[in-house]
# Entry
Amino acid sequence: MEQWMKAYVHVNDRYEVRRVKRPSIGRHDVLIEMKAAGLNRRDLYINDRRYGEEEPLVLGSDGAGVIVAYGEGVTRFTKGDAVLVNPSLRWFEQSAYPPAEHDILGMPDDGTFASYLAIHEEQVEAAIDHLSWEENAAIALAGMTGYRAIVTKGQVTEQDTVLIPGASSGVATFMVQYAKTRGARVIVTTRSEKKAEALRALGVDRVVSTTDDWKKELAEETITLIVDSVGSATFHRSMDVLAKGGRLVTFGSSTEDEVSFDVRQFFYAQQSIYGSTMGCREELRAVLDEVRSRNVTPVIDRIVPFEQIEEAFETLENSTQVGKVIIRLPNR
# Structure
């Protein structure tokens, strides 16, 4: 087997395609020939977190492929198995927060934007038979992040009216489906009519423009659950339309991190705010069960060849997609 491979790396404060050494495997590792990888917003911000680093880091958290080699201690898989990668490292059981040893694949460990990935067998799950490589690569990070936010933390039920601001990300398209399969009414916000059409086709009950006056537009709705990943740009607007006794779950901040709000109004309304991030293996396996039963389907906006990976980054940076952007990986 060739000792070098193509990869998309961060090095010396920039992103680039580079030939790097194929990873070796440990006793409990599998070597996966990667077929497809999913782009996530965290990939855009690696440069901000590795300033001045001279050692190349292979980017990417999501991916799917076939096992071509494995260590002598591996018991769950064998050569030729089709698998997808669990990027939530060393968080296996359900808990209120991740363990101290938890990391996300793609920093500090090398990730999935390469021809091969070596990873512990406990971080791998069987691929879903009725899905393509690209669809399998779209599931893990977005699927379990959304599941933990809206199911584990939000406890969504058929009694809820849910608001998801900016609902065109991969995570949001999973959350819409989780909420709908549980009987909830789902409202989303977007400023794009093209995105609005795609979200309605996914089952959304109502679309409100991001630029509208939400208090006025949603005055007749009783919004019991809001799941927000935008941050300061929507936090106050979300709290303004949240019903008394309602829950707000926040799992990201694509705008500013810091917010202030009226504490008295909050506690008089008996509202709750929950923080959430990623998810554990138990939650990922729950997601895979829902996908296998065909209740939930990964939404892919576009599939981009590895040679055009910079264009994929631009798509995500400009937030023009609905669902996931997937990279088709080179064989060598």
Notes: The longest helix spans residues 140-153. The first strand starts at residue 4 and ends at 11. The mean pLDDT is 95. Residues 4-139+298-328 form a domain with the Quinone Oxidoreductase; Chain A, domain 1 fold (CATH 3.90.180.10).
